[in-house]
Amino acid sequence: METEAVSNLRRQLKEAEDERRKAAQYGLHILEQQNEMQNQLDQLRSELSTKTEKFEQDKYSLQREVELKNRMLESLSFECDALKQQQNMQLDKQQEQLERIHGQEISQLKNKLEKLKADLDETRLSEKQLKHKVEHQKAVINAKSEELHMMSERVHETMSSEVLNLQIELTELESVKASVEEKMNELQYSKEQLELANSNLRNQLERLQGEKEEREKEIVSYCNALEKAREANQALQGQLDHALLQALDPTSKGNSLFAEVEDRRAEMERQLISVKVKYQSLQKQHAFTREQLQRMKLQMATLLQMKGSQAELEQLERLQSMLEQKNGEIEDLLMKVRQLEKFKVRISQNKPVKFNYCTVGQISSSKYERSKETETLRNELSLQRMKALYESQRVLEVERKLFANERHLQVCQSENMNLRLLKANFVLKPTPSYPSEPKLQPEPQLQRAVYAAIFRALA
């Protein structure tokens, strides 16, 4: 029993040693595999690190290329936008020029059309007046022929000499009436012509006022655009000066042995830049004052034109007063014509059926009195007419002299204004040498003095 137990134990021990040996072999084999796997893992890790480094470098280079391409695209897009803006500005300028030229052509065509309309109205009025004259002459000829026919018939009949004399007087009065009517028609024609000329002048004045308002609007728009451009230029100049100061900042260069000299140099550069900025601002201010003077010159020219238009308006008012005077004369002539018609009707009513010596005497005496009255009326009418013509000639001569004196006064005022402006330009003329230190001059006081001189010249 003991031997079997010992043999079993030995067999178990042998099996255990075999298992331990196999386990050691398996462990050794697993350790070798683990070492190989570790070596492979290290190799793969090194390869991965090299590849990642290569990839990172490629990524950085690609990023740099992408950034460079983006910058190139931005610069190209900026250039494209600048070209677009330039093209748009050129197109706007061309469009404005075309619109201005088109507006000028339209205004010229409108002026031609208005002139043609005025000529057409004048021709129509003259044609109408001529037709009216022809019709009136035809009516007068027909009336005269009928009167001659009636006179011839009455001559053949048995009539007395007094009736014939009355008939002759009646014909003379009718001829006087016809002449007065012709004069009245001529005055009416002249009145219509003056009214037509007045309406044409009013239309021309309205058109000139509209053109003046359009030109003033254009001048205001140009001035606003100039002010905006000047402000933008000043802002850009300020940015440029700030950038120059930042570029010349000595603190960004670090410390050195000559720090004090560098500080002094930087201070002198700042002072030089400030002096340059002040000089440029003074130049801009001088240019602005010169532009203001040019603008004042334009305003002076417009004011002188307005004075000329006021003189034309005064002349129109004088013409209207003369027209009213002529209308009063026409009304006086109409009253005299009505009196003559009443006298004719009274004569026709006082004609008797049976004649005797008393009626003939009365008629002859009344005829003599009426002839005296008509003669005195004619003399008074001719005298008044001569007086009116003389007075109108005197008034016209005085108006011509007055208008010539006004024109001479305006010319003298314009010459005086030009001399004052030349003097102001000479005073405002800058020195050609570059100033070491600019002196700020009292520009507003000088402008006020120039404006005061201009307004004194206007007054």
UniProtKB/TrEMBL annotation:
The keyword Cell cycle belongs to this UniProt entry's keyword annotation: yes
GO molecular function: kinetochore binding
CC annotations in GO: outer kinetochore; spindle pole
Family of the protein in this entry: Belongs to the Spindly family.
UniProt keyword Cell division present: yes
Main localization category: nucleus
Protein name in UniProt: Protein Spindly
Gene name, Swiss-Prot/TrEMBL: SPDL1
Keywords recorded for this protein, A-Z: Cell cycle, Cell division, Centromere, Chromosome, Coiled coil, Kinetochore, Mitosis
Subcellular location: Chromosome, Centromere, Kinetochore
One of the GO biological process terms: mitotic spindle assembly checkpoint signaling
Superkingdom field: Eukaryota
Role description: Required for the localization of dynein and dynactin to the mitotic kintochore. Dynein is believed to control the initial lateral interaction between the kinetochore and spindle microtubules and to facilitate the subsequent formation of end-on kinetochore-microtubule attachments mediated by the NDC80 complex.
Coiled coil: 6-54, 84-133, 163-343
